[in-house]
Amino acid sequence: MTQFLFLALAKHQNLYFKRLLDETELSGKVLLPGQMPLPRLWRLPAVIARLDWSALIEEKCQERRVKRKYEGLIYRLLLRLELAWMALRVDALLRRERPANLVMWNGSHRYCQLLLALRPADCGTFFFENGLLPDTTTLDAKGVNYRNSVPRDSAFYRVYRAPEGANEASLELIPRPSRNKNLQPISLPEHYVFIPFQDDRDTQIRLFSPWIADMRQLFALGKRLADECGLTVVFKEHPSSRERYPELHAQAHDRLLFANGNPTQELIQNSDFVVTINSTVGLEGLLLGKPVMTLGQAFFNIPGLVEHAESDREMLDLAKRFPRWSLEPQVREGFLRYLAAEYCIKGGWRDADAAQLKRVAQRMLMLSRSLT
After folding, report:
1. Which residues constitute the domain of residue 298?
2. What's the CATH code of the domain at 50?
3. Which tens digits make up the pLDDT trace of 54-109?
4. CA distances from 69 to 26, 60, 77, 105, 234 (A)
5. For residues 312 and 334, what is the distance between their CA atoms, to the nearest angstrom?
6. 124 and 7: one domain?
């Protein structure tokens, strides 16, 4: 039996996972997809019966649509063949290794979904992701983003007390490197609403944004805030996005602005409130004490912590009611203390030192014992 079976789908995952095994007390294996055993074809009927084929295929085709790539009949046929082949290899892997725990990054990739669908009922799971707070790493036994295990009950945070000596949430945000260099900052208006763009290709939009399909639709909603509520709206494009929006920039005016060259922290701090689908910029707004409105499925959609709109009408109504929102400082403080003290692991994975690796290993061992 393998204690921890890691699936690495990228070079950085492979390196980090190997360090966890080499430099801590964890035992297990790190595998790349190409290292999975050959399929056992006679297992095909049993494997097919355990998979939701339509969901797997539609999710990948949705990703192709966002990227404006072909997703027609031939692609769907080839995708089905690939999924069947990989599912048989995953089945052979699980039978060979008999893992006590599966470890993966994010968990949304189709190969991760195959592992999760075919794993034994008593096999634990661990999901890694970028940290929710500055200089942290996310490790969750349930999932990441909207699927994570962070409590959603306001009452929990009203009475939450951090353990003595626990970490405190940092208020200094870490700038994200931009694909576009030499961007000039603008002079910000005295009052404005800040709306950060997200990456249309990201799972946060593809999976957890039920009524906003992309950033062009988000821009249209911001335009309605300006037109119908008389607000000034400042947008910032996602620094990692490959998408360009020349037609949106052409619609900008003195109450509808782009500030791609301004630091995100400055844009948050000087805003009246932040509107986000489900971006970590919403979390950063909470860190900096700003009111936040969410438009998508976010794990921090907690009454008293943020305001949430499930339609354009709800968004406009909330904007018109600002600042008379039902927000509770006690819930916000308890929420941030919980993330810093108990949920987030101190130290980023990109520049992990021995102490960070040890903290991750200890968390994995503790959670694995609680799952058995």
Report:
1. 193-337
2. 3.40.50
3. 999 999 999 999 989 999 999 999 999 999 999 999 999 999 999 999 999 999 99
4. 41, 11, 15, 25, 31
5. 30
6. yes
